[in-house]
User: What shape does this take?
Amino acid sequence: MKTGTAQHRASASVTVDLTAVIVAVTDGQPRVLTVAGGTSGSAEALPSGPLARQHRTLEQGLRAWVEAQTGQSLGYVEQLYTFGDLDRQLAPPSAGGGRVLSIGYLALVREPRDRSGDAATWHDWYRYFPWEDWRRGRPDVLADIEPALSAWVRAPATAGERESRRERLGVAFGTGGGGWSEDRVLERYELAYEVGLVQEADREGAAGTAGPGVGVAMGGDHRRILATAIARLRGKIKYRPVVFELMPPAFTLLQLQQAVEALAGMPLHKPNFRRLVEQQGLVEETGAVTLGTGGRPARLVRFRREALVERPAPGLRVRARSGRRSGSRSSS
Amino acid sequence: MKTGTAQHRASASVTVDLTAVIVAVTDGQPRVLTVAGGTSGSAEALPSGPLARQHRTLEQGLRAWVEAQTGQSLGYVEQLYTFGDLDRQLAPPSAGGGRVLSIGYLALVREPRDRSGDAATWHDWYRYFPWEDWRRGRPDVLADIEPALSAWVRAPATAGERESRRERLGVAFGTGGGGWSEDRVLERYELAYEVGLVQEADREGAAGTAGPGVGVAMGGDHRRILATAIARLRGKIKYRPVVFELMPPAFTLLQLQQAVEALAGMPLHKPNFRRLVEQQGLVEETGAVTLGTGGRPARLVRFRREALVERPAPGLRVRARSGRRSGSRSSS
DNA sequence: CATGTATATACTCTCTTTGAGAATATTAAG
DNA sequence: CTTAATATTCTCAAAGAGAGTATATACATG
Assistant: This one.
C-alpha cells in the first residue's frame, strides 16, 4: 500500500545490455564465440552491447551488435533470461550509477568462420565448465571439488540448514539418488559460485584468465549467462530438433550423434541413437556417401523438415549410455 | 562495422515494466488474477508496475507491485520472457516516447483470497483462450474460427508462402499429422493474432471487454504474456512438480488430477494418473480421509519433498486420454 | 591378393513404461 | 438390503527403451 505512489517516481535510468551466447559444433566439440575485453578489458566475454533506439526489436539489436563485434551473422536465436539484480552488479560501466539489465540470448550457427571482426575467438565451452563433460566418463574435476562441496554442506550451525544444503547438492550434482542430470547446468554453476569454487574476472580479485577457481572465468555475469544457455540447449534438444541448426546441410548419423554428445556432455548408445533418429523420421537420404573415412562409407542424410509437422515433440530424447567407463571413481 | 560507435550513443531512455501472471486452481478451474485499468483504463489487465531503484532484485520489485495492487503475496515465482519490440508498443504510457520493456513473470499461489487491495479479481483463464480447453472434448470455438484459419492459409499469392502457412497452422493447431499439442499455447495465440481472430483492448479499435475477436481481450500485451505463462506452465508440469504449489497442504488424488487437467486443458485417465503419481513417489499418506463425498471417502495425501532429490525429472508426464467424447466434430 | 581394422548398419532380446479397460472396495441414501 | 456414487486396485496388451551381438563395406598393409 505505502509503496503505491513512491515507486512510480523512482523508476531509475536503466541501460539494457543484449548479450549473446553463440554456439557451434565443430569436430565434435561444442564451441562458443567470445570476444576480448568485455567490461574489464582483459577477461574473455560474450559479444554484447546496449539496446539502442534504432533497434526495432530486441533480437534485431542483438544481431546488429554481434555482427559488428564478431562479423558473425546469426541464424536461430532464442531469448534466455533477463538479469537485473543489483547485488550481481559490479562497477557500472559508464552508466552513472544507473541500473544495468542484461538480456541473454542463445544463438546457433553452423560453421565457425574464425577470422572475423576483431578479437572474436571460438572456445570449447567445457573450458568454462569442466565438470559438465561426461563423454569419457566422470570428469576428474569432480573429485577435486568434492571436498569443498562436502565442507559447504557441513558448514552451517543448524541441522536444518545442513539438511537443506545436502538436498540442494543432491539435486544439482546427482549425489543422493537422482543421479547426474545433464541439464542442471545452471544449478550447478550457481552452487559452485556460492561455494566459492568458481570466480569471475571482475570480482573477488581473481586474475584475468584462469584464477584460483575451477574453469576459466569470464567478464561480468557472462559465465552465468553461458550456463543458462547450455542448460536451455540441453533441455531443448530433447523435444525440439534444434541440433540440426548446428549441422551442415548434409551429414552422417555419426556426426549427428557426436554433435548431440558434445552438447549433452554424455555418451550415447549408437544403435539406439540411430534407431531413434530414423523412426522419428527426422532425417532423409541425400543419396550421397562419405569417402575416405577409413572404414565403410557412411550415408549422408539431411534434416527432414516435415518431421516438425508430423510429430508433436520431435526431439532426440536421449539418455546416457551406461557404458563401462562411466563408473564412478569418486572416493578412492 | 559501421554501427559500432553510432549505437553506443543512442541507448535511449527505457522504462522497465514488471508484469505478473498469478495462477491458482480453485474448484478444478484454472484462474488468473487481474486488475482493472492497466494502461487503457477499462480493459482487464495483469498486475504490473515499473521497476524502481529501491528494488534490489527484479523479483522483489514484482512482489512489491503485486502486493500493492492486489494484496496477494506470492510464493513460487519464475521469470517468463522479456518483451520489448517497438512494433508491439502502443501509446507509450507517459514514457515520453521512450521504450517500454516488459518482463513477464509466472507466479503460483494457493488460494484466491478474493477481496484484496482494490479491483483485483480472479478469472478462469479459458475466458481469454476458449480454444485451449479440451477437457470436455474439442472446444466449439475451433469450429467457428476454422474458416478464418483456412482462408488465411489460402490467402497468399505464391504457393511457397501458402505451404509455409499450412505448415505453421499444422504445427500450432494440430491439423496435419501431429495432433493437438497442449503446450503450443503461445504459437496458437500469435497465429490467431496474425489472422486477426483475437483483438486486444488498446489497438485495432476493439471495445473494452469482449470485442469482435475470440476470447476476452486484455490491455497492452498482457494476453500474450498470459499465453506465454500457460505454455510454460503446461510444459513444466511434465518434468517438475509445480502443481503442488497450487494445492492445499493435504488433498485427494482426484483433486490433484483435476488440477492437472485444469492446467493442461485435457482429460486424463484416472487409473493411469494414480499409478504415475504413486510410483513416482510424489505423494505420501496423511492418514486422514475426506468425508461426505457421497461415495467412498478418499485418502488425503501430501506432497513428498524427497521426490525432488530422488528422481531426475519428477513431474507428471501426462498425455491426453483418448476417451470417446473427444471426437472431432469439426466439419459437419 | 589375403588379412586386419575401423567404421557403418542390421538384428535380437529383455525389461519397463504406457494406454486402456475391467473389477473390486467403501461409504451414503433409499 | 439394495442401489448409487465414488475410490482404489488389477490385468493385459502394445509400444518403447536399453543393451548386446552380428554382418557388411572400405581402406591399409604385408
Notes: DSSP finds nine helices and nine strands in chain B. Chain B touches chain A through 51 residues (CB under 8 Å).
